[in-house]
Amino acid sequence: MHGNIWEWCLDEWHENYNEAPKDGSAWIDDNDNRLLRGGYWYNFPSNCRSVNRGRDARAVRDSNVGFRVVVVGGGT
Predict the structure, then answer these.
(1) 3, 50 in Cβ contact below 8 A?
(2) 73 and 27 in contact (C-beta within 8 Å)?
(3) I need a surface site. Which of 19, 39, 48, 74 has the fewest CB within 10 A?
(4) What is the pLDDT of residue 14?
(5) What are phi and psi of 6, to 5 degrees?
(6) What angle do CA 51, 52, 54 make, to 5 degrees?
(7) Does the pLDDT value for residue 13 go beyond 80?
């Protein structure tokens, strides 16, 4: 999954994790840049991993940025 597209995250960009929420919730404030994770197909392979971080303004749309749909619960 890593490296296909940058994953658009709910968290906003911060230079480091100082003051980040400790409960796993999204880190949202008044920042204009959203956090991107994972790299995309044009990156070097070493950059295509979940710890690779990037950023982009909320208004930017690009073919190398997307999101993953998650379904919680439900059962069959």
Answers:
(1) no
(2) no
(3) 74
(4) 94
(5) -65, 135
(6) 130
(7) yes
* pLDDT score at 51: 87
**CA distances for 30 relative to 4, 39, 72, angstroms:** 29, 24, 28
Q: Are 39 and 45 in contact (CB under 8 A)?
A: no
Say if residues 3 and 37 touch (Cβ distance below 8 Å): no
Whole-number pLDDT of residue 34: 92
Q: How does pLDDT run across 18-67, given as a tens digit for each residue?
A: 999 999 999 998 888 999 998 888 888 888 888 899 999 988 888 888 88
The structure tokens listed for 66 are 């997307």
| Paired residues of 7 in beta bridges | 37, 66
Give the burial class of 23: count Cβ atoms within 10 A of its Cβ; 0-12 exposed, 13-18 middle, 19 or more buried. Answer: exposed
Q: Cα–Cα distance between 14 and 48 in angstroms, integer?
A: 20
